[in-house]
Amino acid sequence: MKLRKKIFLLALAPLVLVLCMIAVMVNHQSVELARAQREVIEPTYLASKEGELRSYLMLAQHAIAPLYDSGRMDEAAKAEAKAILSRMDYGEDGYFFVYDLQGILLVHPRTPERVGTNRLDYRDINGFPHVQHLIAHGREGGGFVRYVIEKPSTGKPALKLTYVTPLPKWGWLLCTGIYLEDVEYVLAGVDTQVTGNNRDTMRWIGSIAFLGIGVIIFSGLMLNIRERQAGQEEERNRVAIELHDSICQQLLSLRYQVEAMGIRLLEIPAQFAVAENPFKRISAELANILGEVRETGRGLHPMILKDLGLPAALRQLAQDMENETTSIRFRNRGLVGGLPGDTSFVFYRLAQECLSNVKRHSQASRAAVRLAGDRKSVRLIVWDNGIGFDPNCMTAGHSRGAGLHNMKARVEEAGGRLTITSMPGNTKVTATIPRLFCNASSPSMTSDLPIRTLARTVQFGL
């Protein structure tokens, strides 16, 4: 596995692991929070319901107190008390019912057909003997019993909290109950809210994970592209230096020797003077080859860009690209000095590509290169008055468009924007890079060359 992939995995794996751990911890904390909320809410609700039931039962006791406290034990007094309790209710499912100590149902306004039956062995839906527990709590002085029974208004099973208090003179157990659906509803709402919050949190974590992974992948791709470009430029630099230091020197030396031989031929007899012309042609050819090699070296890696900066490099480029048919002018204004190497190199390559296209394709008589800068951005404009071209041809299938397509990608990679307008007599290529991206560019092109490079640049015009 390549080192680049290992670094990528080492950056990605910890991120995924940390996000998974965060997700597990958040889920655990949410479950614990829901449990803690239930533990707080449920006793509070039950306490309020218990207080409510005591109040209702106290009202019922006050309603029959004149009969019960009179000391009467006859059936007429008890029948009148039963009638009073049967008429009392609260809400849709709030009523009072009475058992005796043997489990016989004495009062029940919702199911009068069951009155007089022994319900001692009656059990709720879950098999719980709630009547026996009501009698047991009544014998002990009163208490609360919870059980599941059919709710009269809906006909569906529901959890019911019943309070029982004894009427010992008559041997009665006075009861009333409240269905706890609202408590279950509140607790279910808490669970639903916690589940929803948990789900939203997981979505946020997933989004952050997706974004983080995307940033890492994008950064890896950009790093890979920059490494390749840096490798290419390094190789170009090496080849350019090799051409400059070796081949150009040898060609220049050979040219000097040929010229020296031509001078020496002036001293020989006239019958050998005919040999002077081949030496002149060889010297001219060597001069052309030397110029082409220098041009190739300059194309591979513009040393002047490092040594003297972008304005000087563009001025030299305009002079070198100018010929008998096309005049090229360069102008610069504003804050254009001290640009980072990456930004300078992008502008230089764009100008080089555009001027090359002008020479090869445009049939222009005039061209101009303008470099302008302010506190917000730096802009390069290359203009010519040639025949123009279709800007939509910027694809790999066109020799002219391929270079501009690559330059457009490089300008956008540097954080800038490339626009092209073209018509016969007016073609303009404009690259604008915000100053923010110029300052953020890594100075990969600004590494120092040996001092002797500048001397050779001046000496050989590179």
From TrEMBL:
The keyword Transmembrane helix applies. It is found in: Cell membrane. It comes from the Bacteria. Gene3D superfamilies: 1.20.5.1930, Histidine kinase-like ATPase, C-terminal domain (3.30.565.10), PAS domain (3.30.450.20). The chain crosses the membrane at residues 204-223. Residues 42-132 form the Single Cache domain. This is Two-component system, NarL family, sensor kinase.
